[in-house]
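agent> Task received from the user: take the single chain below, predict its 3D structure, and emit structure tokens. No templates, no multimer pairing.
agent> Plan: (1) validate residues, (2) run structure prediction, (3) serialize to tokens, (4) report one or two observations.
agent> Step 1 OK, no nonstandard residues flagged.
tool_call: predict_structure(input=
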Amino acid sequence: MLPLRSATFTEIDAFTGYLLWQLRERVFVVEQECPYLELDGRDLEPGTRHLWLEDDGAPVAYLRVLEDPAEFRIGRVLVASTHRGHGLGERLMHAALEVAEGRPCRLDAQSYLVGWYAGLGFTPCGEEFVEDGIPHVPMRRSA
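)
tool_result: status=success, residues=143
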């Protein structure tokens, strides 16, 4: 089983941080052909937790959990193309829900993944919208 890591920004060493941001860029900017400012400043917030799975010392799946006043916000959920189809995303999501400690959670699901997130207890809570050229649906999971 691949090791699960969890850290705040200040707990991540420079080398690991580089690999995490590189993986996010590879999936969200290059693979999805979506040029946008992937580093949005929220990674630095003290309440943000970064969760990832490593294979041979390199991150292959990642998400972040933002602590907003009323709820937790899960985002940047990804699995490297080389590691998809093995349940890594689901494992990370369960870990994120543990971080949330039973509090409500929100996320903006890419529309084709609404059913997958529904299987984790999330329900749509708004209309579909397009962000950076990709259709998304806001979803929420109650406490």
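agent> Step 4: summary for the user.
Strands lie at 4-7, 49-55, 58-67, 72-79, 105-110, 123-124, 129-131, 134-141.
agent> Done.
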